[in-house]
Amino acid sequence: MSPKTQRNRRSAGRAKGRIIVVLGGASSGKSEIALQLGGSRGPRAFVATGQGLDEEMVERIARHQATRSAEWQTFEEPIDVEAWFLKQGAEFRSIVFDCVTLWLSNLVGIGLTESVILARVETLLDAMRHTGANVIIVSNELGSGLVPAEPSVRAFRDLSGRVNQCLAAGADEAYLAVSGLPLRLK
Q1: Does residue 13 sit within a domain?
Q2: Residue in 7, 185, 5 with CA at minimum distance from that of residue 89
Q3: Is position 64 annotated as part of the catalytic site?
Q4: How many domains does the chain have?
Q5: Which of 130, 159, 180, 181 is 20 to 30 A from 116 via CA?
Q6: CA-to-CA distance for 83 and 163, rounded, in angstroms?
Q7: Residues 6+ away with beta carbon under 8 Å from 48
Q8: What is the extent of the structural domain holding 133?
């Protein structure tokens, strides 16, 4: 039996999954809210895009890992998130994808253009839909602060905003995390 047939059989008996977007500022509680929305029934996956490229980031990743129970299976996928969802997503009931902003940073860092990134976002949404899982997407809301002085930072903030709009439009539900509280947008 082919892997595709196996994947289709595994997801055939399950209810259709939902895509949920959780937006928020730095330390707003969005990851904790995403984990709560992921529920307590497994199997559950946590797809992490952060890379421990410096000591502070290694510590940040360790703090995030400590907030998840052992029932969450963690996958570190900084670039090929769409491929992960296509290959492994159907194995899980709930998947938290944390976070889009670091994924975008990784994609920009390897030289991808905005048009390629936006096309990948559409591919990602399609891949998420085909899992049959409840997928909770975590992303930073960067547009609420001051206008950055550097053109490259402004361009990244604008790209992030466009990506968040695409994700929110394609999602079944959307929340804004403020001071650890979820505000339902959609």
Answers
A1: no
A2: 7
A3: yes
A4: 1
A5: 130
A6: 18
A7: 61, 64, 74, 75, 76, 77, 98
A8: 22-184
Report if residue 100 sits inside a domain: yes
Q: Is residue 155, in this structure, part of any structural domain at all? A: yes
Q: Which one-letter amino acid corresponds to residue 124?
A: L
Place of tokens 């952060």: 50
Q: Judge whether 105 and 71 are in contact, CB under 8 Å.
A: no
**Within a domain: 5:** no
Q: Which residue has the tokens 């570190």?
A: 76
**Closest C-alpha to 159, from 170, 143, 148:** 143
Q: Which residues contact 175 (CB under 8 A, 6 or more apart)?
A: 20, 21, 22, 23, 33, 37, 182, 183, 184, 185
Q: Which residue spans within the chain are E strands per DSSP?
A: 19-24, 44-48, 72-76, 94-98, 134-140, 173-178, 181-184
At 67, is the secondary structure helix, strand, or coil? coil
**CA dist., res. 71 & res. 20, Å (int):** 20
pLDDT per position as a tens digit, 93-126:
999 999 999 999 999 999 999 999 999 999 999 9
Catalytic residue among 7, 30, 44, 64: 64
CATH of the domain at 75: 3.40.50.300
pLDDT, one tens digit per residue, over 30-77 is: 999 999 999 988 899 999 997 667 787 668 767 777 777 788 999 999
The pTM assigned to this predicted structure is 0.86
